[in-house]
Design a protein that fits this description.
472 residues; alpha+beta; Pdz3 Domain; 2-enoyl-CoA Hydratase, Chain A, domain 1; 2 domains; six-stranded antiparallel β-sheet; five-stranded antiparallel β-sheet; 20 strands; 21% strand
């Protein structure tokens, strides 16, 4: 069917006015529809508040309603009340106002125990050490405090003071033991910068040794999370490794020395900033796609053309660090999100072999949307990551073990430690990661030759080193 123009044309001014009226009517209808939902929601809350047999808390009802709304979305979207946005920002910024203590609250019967001071932070300068117990904060006992309450009291504006009552490590904690003698430590809060990139073990001065103990010429970079400074920290680690390799070559006998290799450990890394993951990949790649991000409205990322153009594609720039070193990436079932982006990228480009067990399968990005009144925020899934091969990373609720998701180890490189091995490894790893007290070194690190070497306690690392040696 075709249409022909009418004999008498409508003036352009009238056409414009008509189109404006249609547009205004459409917007008004949409606004009415949205306002209608809001009015109904307020009416329901008001009716419950006025007529319910038992008194109700409107905030509690609102929180419950939000939980219902987000239950219809994916498992990573959520409504979060309170000050958690600030804590999330601190994690990603890798800094917050505090005294610099990592705490262990796994057994509150033992009290609030210092897992490790932060090197150079106020608590470290005051002589606090791993194993110390915090008995009180500003005169308030920690006996019945939750870890959340402890962190709230320790954190604060830089320059403000906090008083800790501390019991030294090694004092008795049995129920019938005499009361321990505590000392009061007054600390001034500072901006505490946390590290996300670490090496094999601490040196006596608290800095990191990047070469794996007992494995000549094999370096290891462990990334715990992806924050604002992660890429910068990786670059510094790479510079230290390059300097070490250069010095080793100048010492002679390079033909007899095993070929150098690099292990990138992403086990237990739950992710963080996608931008940090992209930067880390770019450090080790010279060219090519790092990751593609697919947002709403892009449905078929496997084909070229308009859909491909709609993807947000991140590419590597010229220049790759440690390009001559064979590389292995370690992953496990807790490796997720941005960490999976790095593992998938280096695997797809053939830059590294992947060793360990299949990763978690969290390949979506959440945007943080703060409520206007500051009472909370929305954590809403807004995009999905695709690896360079355009394969999907995200595991959906109906995906099974045969579906395509996550990052699988390379052929012959899959290894899953037993629960007992993991427990032993974590305890051993904690000892090697502890920041030594100012002016001292933990006994377990005073005689490295007598320490348990990584190969004996970490089967995944041992497998990676063996595979790298085989490929020399």
């Amino acid at each position: 069917m075709t249409f022909s123009a009418p004999q008498t044309a409508m003036p352009k001014r009238n056409i414009f006015v008509l189109l404006m009226m249609i547009a205004v009517a459409g917007v008004s209808w949409l606004a009415r529809d949205r306002a209608g939902h809001g009015r109904r929601f307020a009416e329901v809350l008001g009716s419950i508040e006025r007529s319910s047999l038992d008194p109700v808390d409107q905030q509690g009802l609102f929180d419950a309603a939000m939980q219902g709304v987000f239950s219809r979305l994916d498992e990573h979207s959520a409504f979060v009340a309170g000050d958690q946005p600030d804590r999330l920002k601190n994690l990603l910024d890798q800094e917050c106002g505090g005294v610099g203590l990592e705490l262990d609250g796994s057994d509150l019967r033992q009290g609030i125990v210092v897992a490790s001071p932060v090197l150079g932070a106020p608590a470290w300068h005051a002589g606090m050490a791993a194993g110390d117990r915090i008995l009180a904060i500003d005169g308030v006992t920690t006996a019945r405090m939750t870890m959340e309450e402890v962190f709230q009291r320790l954190r604060g504006r830089p320059g403000t003071a906090v008083l800790l009552s501390v019991e030294a490590a090694g004092d008795p904690v049995e129920q019938d033991a005499p009361a321990a003698v505590a000392r009061d430590i007054s600390l001034l809060r500072e901006v505490i910068k946390t590290e996300s990139v670490v090496g094999d073990r601490r040196r006596p001065d608290g800095s990191w040794e990047w070469t794996i103990e007992g494995e000549s010429a094999v370096a290891m970079i462990r990334i715990k999370t992806f924050g604002e400074r992660t890429a910068e920290e990786v670059r510094r680690a790479v510079e230290a490794i390059e300097s070490r390799l250069t010095n080793a070559e100048s010492d002679g006998d390079s033909d007899e020395r095993p070929k150098a290799a690099l292990v990138l450990d992403l086990r237990g890394n739950a992710g963080g900033l996608l931008s940090a993951a992209v930067e880390v990949c770019d450090i080790f790649l010279d060219d090519g796609v790092i990751v593609s991000t697919k947002g709403r409205g892009v449905h078929d990322a496997g084909t070229a053309g308009d859909d491909a153009a709609a993807l947000d594609v991140q590419r590597a720039t010229r220049g790759a660090a440690l390009a001559d070193l064979p590389m292995a990436v370690l992953v496990d079932g807790l490796t997720a999100s941005a960490a999976e982006v790095v593992a998938a990228c280096l695997q797809d480009h053939g830059r590294a072999i992947v060793v360990g067990s299949r990763s978690f399968g969290k390949g979506t990005e959440q945007s943080i949307i703060r409520l206007s009144d500051g009472s909370g925020f929305l954590k809403l899934t807004t995009s999905e990551y695709l690896r360079p091969s355009r394969g999907t990373i995200h595991r959906r609720t109906n995906d099974d073990g045969d579906s395509t998701w996550g990052v699988r180890p390379d052929g012959g490189c899959e290894i899953t430690p037993t629960g007992r091995q993991i427990e032993s490894f974590q305890a051993w790893r904690h000892i090697r990661d502890v920041v030594p007290a100012k002016g001292s070194l933990p006994e377990t690190l005073q005689s490295p030759s007598q320490a348990v070497l990584p190969r004996r306690v970490d089967p995944v690392l041992a497998k990676a080193v063996d595979v790298l040696r085989e490929r020399d």
